[in-house]
Design brief:
This protein is mainly β and 121 residues long. The chain has strands at 3-7, 10-13, 18-25, 34-39, 46-51, 58-60, 68-73, 78-83, 92-98, 110-111, 115-120.
Length: 121
């Protein structure tokens, strides 16, 4: 059974950093593209970052470019999202997803349950 479990969320002050992790099981992680999405209160879920199955190609939303870094450890079956210089507008539930194409949410068949990130001003 395919499963994605996020961790690492929490409360942080503006300008701080957090690293989110997403542990995968039940599918061949090394052959899957991975993505991070987020949903802020009252807003639709939105693309944050994606990484190709080899780990060589990455894509970012303009709002996080230069501050967030996505990475993938195939040996640990884990994808990470390093978030630096956090802003209050980064506050959201963050979801990892597997198997899709870059920012296209509809193409991702597997999703985690989400982890809350709250950035205080």
């Amino acid at each position: 059974q395919e499963q994605l479990v996020e961790s690492g969320g929490g409360l942080v002050q503006a300008g701080g950093s957090l690293r989110l992790s997403c542990a995968a099981s039940g599918f061949t992680f090394s052959r899957y593209n991975m993505g991070w999405f987020r949903q802020a209160p009252g807003k639709e879920r939105a693309f944050v970052a994606a990484i190709g199955w080899t780990g060589e190609s990455t894509h970012y939303a303009d709002s996080v470019k230069g501050r967030f870094t996505i990475s993938k450890d195939n040996a640990k079956k884990t994808v990470y999202l390093q978030m630096n210089s956090l802003k209050p507008e980064d506050t959201a539930v963050y979801y990892c997803a597997a198997g899709g194409r870059v920012s296209s949410q509809a193409t991702y068949p597997y999703w985690g349950q989400g982890t809350q990130v709250t950035v205080s001003s």
